[in-house]
Design a protein that fits this description.
It is a single chain. Helix 3 packs parallel to helix 4 and helix 6 runs parallel beside helix 7. Strands 6, 7, 8, 9, 11, 12, 14, 15, 19 and 20 form a 10-stranded antiparallel beta sheet that branches. Strands 21-22-23-26-27-28-29-30 form an 8-stranded parallel beta barrel, surrounded by 4 helices. The protein has 3 domains: about 325 residues, Beta-galactosidase, Chain A, domain 5 (Distorted Sandwich); about 210 residues, TIM Barrel (Alpha-Beta Barrel); about 90 residues, Immunoglobulin-like (Sandwich). About 20% of the residues lie in helices and about 30% in strands. The protein is globular and about 85 Å long. It is an alpha+beta fold. Bound molecules: (2R,3S,4R,5S)-2-(hydroxymethyl)piperidine-3,4,5-triol. The site of (2R,3S,4R,5S)-2-(hydroxymethyl)piperidine-3,4,5-triol (DGJ) has 11 residues, from loops. (2R,3S,4R,5S)-2-(hydroxymethyl)piperidine-3,4,5-triol binds next to loops.
């Protein structure tokens, strides 16, 4: 049982395999947070009120209950909690933005409550949900807080439904799905920052008293700051210490807030909020209407950052990712870095033939196949094949590709339009554009207004037509710019604050449609690389193009950072760059760097000598040996490249610990030849393993004590071990 309701004491306990979360209700009215941490028989459940002056209290309860110092379950605006709040609601009739939500009732739900319009985690037979209903007596608005428990992943998710039962319009001015008050300060915050081609670089900083936040105002979860973050104890390492991980199942603008409260004479507070925020989101709730927030998640472990990552990995693999469409993950040959826009039917068939010859599974035809799209400044939005390049049409072309013995994948970028397109000329009012302000450009494109159902319908109709009877196994769904001048012509002025959110709802609607139309096809998500590397996209996409940067020197950092919040199974990695691949040493290094996730190739193989292509064929076979470990094994980081001068090491281990794949990667040469002891703590201490790559024997106990790897003087050096039980 993972949700336990004690109605007598108004005590609610959520249990996962290794953690527990306890909620109380002070004075029968205020849901307060009592404990979250390691599962134990008698957790230290306690109220956390302290008065230090200048902190308001309710007349009835006096200084025994100080909202500003209490650990609140769901803080709202105006009633004595001066910290950042989860919900700010403005009453249309009075103009006031104070609310006071108090406890009404609680119930347990088998499974979960779905959230209309936005992706959320799938429940299974072990999933249970606590519903806490609160009411604001003055307005009669009802707030239902949901806590869904995924026991085997040690993950709890949070979302809410707000129902306006008043006779006034209410406006949601701030919306945070998750709020967690921890009665402690002095955490480190671990987060992932970057840019296009530099995604998700690990950073760890001490939190300061006051507010710190991660966010996107770009209408996409973004390359710049990922919504995933951790709060960790100062002493926490990969293997030891307390760590909390947070994420948001949403792909647009977001806000993660961490507020560390002022000094309370020994009593300290850290508040974490995760949600849509306030700058890019407002919502008008008319009488009788409901609003459901997207879902946010939290996981805790006292076994270090590595365990929180593994919790996230398990959760995403089990409850977020779509069912794998194929027995093996297709190893693709992608046309982009090989030819950019210069593609046609003949070339693609020749390319497919090469893919098949060297045992790659799928040709992915990237950008350049439709409309006037022969450069990036025309044709986006015009979804019909370019007749000069595909004179017979898509259907016979795809049949010919498949006749070579490979699957077929195709690139689309539905959310965008070039001004130089038939679509834009016919419907200039279909883009995001605020009246009176010129729309801005990036990559010569505007953003379509996906909040407008007509636009979404146009896209469905266009794709249905162009792909009619075409056998597609894979879509690469790209998105190459962020939102500006956000405004939807489909919404009245008073609802314009909803445009950014409704835009994403339109994007999700189209994703769902595509999945329904092609239930057996796989979607690879892409946003100029990993610009939407988030749980929302993962709900529809088996893998995500991790970054447009395929240079191992940057990739190791990008991949390392991505593994904190997301399973390696989602991390699409390609061996690329013709010149480097001509050098056997660099080709080998690129391949080993790529094997941090599902691999593919992205270079003009037609230019390459047979010997190199034969090496690639061997690589494909080698990847298949490890595939199960890489896609489904438990992942352990050993060396952080940010802290170890570019050296990155990690291993995968399968469930019965019979196989371990350990990789050491070193981008830079090291004249000092540093020695690293890599402890394989998940090895089975009672077993003997053989490293199948060197045929050397080693015991599980020795692996746990650590194997020594010495760095090399040369750049781009790697070492791999494949330990298999005897
Ligand atoms: C950006 C993507 O990240 C690339 O892989 C490629 O698909 C281009 N767009 C095509 O325009």
């Amino acid at each position: 049982m993972s949700v336990i309701i004690n109605k007598k004491d108004l005590r609610f306990t959520l249990k996962t395999d290794n953690t527990m979360y306890v909620i109380g209700v002070r004075y029968g009215k205020f849901p307060v947070h009592l404990y979250y941490g390691k599962k134990m028989k008698n957790p230290p459940v306690d109220y956390h009120s302290v008065s230090r002056g200048f902190e308001a209290y309710y007349e009835e309860y006096g200084e025994e209950f100080i909202p500003d110092s209490e650990t609140m379950e769901f803080p709202f605006f105006g009633s004595g909690d001066y910290r950042a709040v989860a919900l700010k609601l403005r009453n249309g009739k009075t103009g006031g933005d104070t609310t006071l939500f108090t406890y009404k009732n609680a119930k347990k739900i088998k499974g979960r409550v779905d959230i209309p319009g936005v992706p959320c985690a799938d429940a299974d037979e072990n999933t249970e949900t606590l519903e806490l209903a609160l009411v604001d007596e003055f307005s009669n608005c009802e707030l239902k807080l949901y806590y869904t428990v995924f026991p085997e992943s040690d993950v709890i998710s949070r979302y809410f439904v707000l129902e306006n039962n008043s006779d006034s319009e209410m406006s949601i001015e701030k919306c945070m799905s998750l709020s967690l008050d921890i009665p402690k300060a002095d955490f480190d915050m671990v987060s992932f920052y970057g840019a296009h081609c530099r995604e998700r670089k690990f950073q760890r900083q001490a939190t300061i008293r006051g507010m710190q936040s991660l966010y996107s105002r770009r209408g996409a979860s973004s390359h710049q700051l990922n919504p995933f973050m951790m709060l960790v104890d100062k002493k926490t390492t990969e293997e030891k210490g307390e760590a909390y991980g947070f994420n948001f199942c949403y792909s647009g603008s977001f806000l993660d807030e961490v507020e560390v409260s002022y000094y309370y004479g020994g009593v300290e507070r850290t508040r974490v909020l995760v949600g849509l925020g306030q700058e890019c989101f407002k919502w008008l709730l008319k009488p009788g209407e409901k609003f459901a927030s997207p879902e946010a998640i939290v996981s805790y472990s006292d076994k270090g950052m590595g365990q929180v990552s593994r919790n996230m990995h398990r959760f995403i693999r089990k409850h977020i990712l779509p069912k794998e469409p194929y027995a093996n993950r297709p190893i693709v040959l992608n046309s982009w870095e090989a030819f950019y826009f210069d593609i046609d039917a003949k070339l693609m068939v020749a390319f497919a033939k090469e893919a098949a010859k060297y045992d790659m599974d799928m040709l992915v035809m990237d950008d350049g196949w439709f409309g006037a799209r022969i450069t990036d400044n025309a044709g986006l939005g015009d979804w019909y094949e370019n007749k000069d390049r595909f004179p017979e049409g898509l259907k016979p072309f795809v049949e010919e590709v498949k006749a070579q013995g490979v699957k077929f994948g195709i690139w689309i970028e539905p959310e965008m339009v070039n001004p130089d397109s038939y679509l834009y000329r016919a419907h200039p009012d279909w883009i995001l554009q605020t009246p009176g302000y010129k729309p801005l450009l990036w990559r010569s494109q505007y953003v379509l207004d996906m909040a407008n159902p007509e636009v979404v319908q146009y896209l469905k109709d266009s794709f249905a037509k162009v792909f009619k009877d075409v056998s597609i196994d894979y879509f690469k769904w790209d998105m190459n710019r962020h939102l500006t001048t956000v405004y939807s012509n489909a919404l009245p002025p008073e609802r314009q604050g909803e445009a950014s959110y409704r835009h994403i709802l339109g994007v999700y609607e189209l994703f769902r449609w595509l999945r329904e139309q092609y239930p057996n096809a796989m979607i690879e998500n892409c946003s100029g690389g990993g610009g939407r590397y988030d749980l929302g996209m993962m709900k529809y996409s088996t893998q995500i193009w991790t970054s447009d940067n395929t240079d191992p020197k940057y990739r190791t950092y990008i991949q390392h950072g991505s593994t904190f919040g997301y399973p390696t199974a989602t991390m699409s990695c390609h061996v690329a760059h013709v010149e480097d691949c001509r050098n056997p040493r660099f080709l080998d290094y690129r391949f080993r760097v790529a094997m941090n996730g599902p691999i593919g190739y992205e270079l003009d193989v037609l230019q390459l000598e047979d010997s190199i292509k034969n090496t690639m064929k061997k690589q494909v076979a080698e990847f298949r040996c490890y595939e199960n470990l890489i896609l489904r094994g438990d992942f352990y980081r050993l060396l952080n490249p940010v802290e170890n001068g570019s050296r990155y090491a990690y291993y995968f281990v399968n469930e019965d610990k019979s196989q371990i794949l350990l990789t050491y990667l070193q981008n830079e040469g090291d004249p000092k030849r540093t020695k690293f002891k890599l402890k394989v703590s998940a090895a089975d201490k009672n077993s003997v393993y053989i490293d199948r790559l060197s045929d050397k024997k080693i015991t599980g106990a020795e692996l746990r004590a650590g194997i020594v790897v010495e760095s090399d003087t040369e750049e781009q050096y790697s070492k791999m071990f494949w330990f298999c039980k005897e």
